[in-house]
Design a protein that fits this description.
Blueprint: E1 7-14, E2 30-37, E3 42-48, E4 52-54, E5 58-67, E6 77-84, E7 94-101, E8 112-120, E9 127-134, E10 150-158, E11 167-171, E12 177-182, E13 186-192, E14 200-205, E15 208-215, E16 228-231, E17 234-241, E18 248-255, E19 260-261, E20 281-282
Parallel strand pairs: 4-10, 19-20
Antiparallel strand pairs: 1-2, 3-5, 5-8, 6-7, 6-9, 9-10, 11-18, 12-17, 13-16, 13-18, 14-15, 14-17
Length: 293
């Protein structure tokens, strides 16, 4: 069938179009047969995802696409999944995964297929969001309705927990946010294990920002007068940032309660491994006593 306008049309069957044969009646050489020209219609008829997930976590996703049109869908196309702040798809939404639909085509009228994937969530958005399941994202297959190719599924995205003293090695793309839960008031120390001043980190609690986009280099180096964080009990959100989201970074947030006990006038011999890490020590001393290292 050649490309033509959609809707109700006619197929014209014509004999002796060039009048090569003389006839008694030249007006009855055409028979018209009505035909409806219509493309298929792809619809995301079902989609499933967990209602809650941690950023960077690998979760199962599944979606079903049905050809609700009257004719077979002949082309191939891509299905894609995005994270969005709303139920409408636009260029601000964050790409999650995709699937080339070629083994499932041609897709007959009223037929469907289901795609299942395990995907790692990008570490970009927190809170109540939506997973957008979009079929034929690039409009490779003509359809009667291009506005019904999306299904939105609500999901609550939370930050993974960070255990005090745990070394985090990741990328911004994999893990940008971490939850830090303190049962008691605590003295914490940020140990930057990546020697790159372009990496920044922040810490936010119930009372607002505790650390605001401080560079790794300025967190445990000579540039900062007092690197110790005096924090109240509660829940905090730690975040890291860097222009290149695929560069690996490392750090740890240590609790001074776990520092090794140091006895004054006793020598200490140890090794830093890696060499840019910080080892913590604590000791008891009388008021106004002078100490030197």
């Amino acid at each position: 069938m050649p490309y033509t306008e959609l809707g109700n049309r006619f197929l014209l069957f014509v004999t002796d179009d060039d009048n090569d044969q003389s006839e008694t009646n030249e007006t009855d050489n055409v028979r018209a047969v009505p035909i409806e020209i219509t493309p298929p219609d792809l619809v995301v008829s079902n989609a499933t995802a967990p209602s809650n997930a941690a950023l960077g976590e690998t979760i199962p996703l599944s979606w079903t696409v049905t050809n609700s049109g009257k004719v077979t869908a002949l082309n191939n196309w891509y299905d894609q999944v995005y994270i969005s702040s709303d139920t409408a798809f636009d260029n601000s939404d964050i790409y999650v995964t995709e699937e080339l639909i070629d083994a499932q085509t041609p897709l007959a009228a009223r037929d469907n297929y289901t795609i299942s994937q395990n995907v790692a969530l990008p570490s970009r958005l927190l809170g109540n969001r939506y997973l957008l399941f979009v079929t034929d994202r690039d409009n490779s297959q003509g359809e009667t309705d291009e506005t019904n190719n999306l299904k939105a599924v609500a999901i609550n995205l939370i930050a993974p927990s960070l255990n005090l003293g745990q070394t985090i090695t990741s990328t911004i793309a994999q893990n940008k946010y971490f939850n830090v839960n303190l049962d008691t008031d605590s003295l914490l120390y940020f140990d930057a294990l990546t020697n790159n001043g372009n990496f920044k980190w922040s810490l936010t609690g119930a009372d607002g920002k505790v650390v605001d986009s401080r560079s790794f280099a300025a967190s445990d180096g000579y540039q900062i007068n007092n690197p110790v964080l005096n924090l109240k009990a509660g829940s905090y959100l730690a975040s890291s940032d860097y222009p290149n989201t695929n560069i690996t970074y490392s750090f740890r947030l240590s609790d001074l309660k776990t520092a090794s006990i140091l006895t004054p006038d006793t020598s200490v011999s140890d090794q830093l491994d890696p060499g840019n890490q910080t080892d913590l020590y604590k000791f008891d001393a009388a008021k106004e006593r002078s100490l030197s290292v």
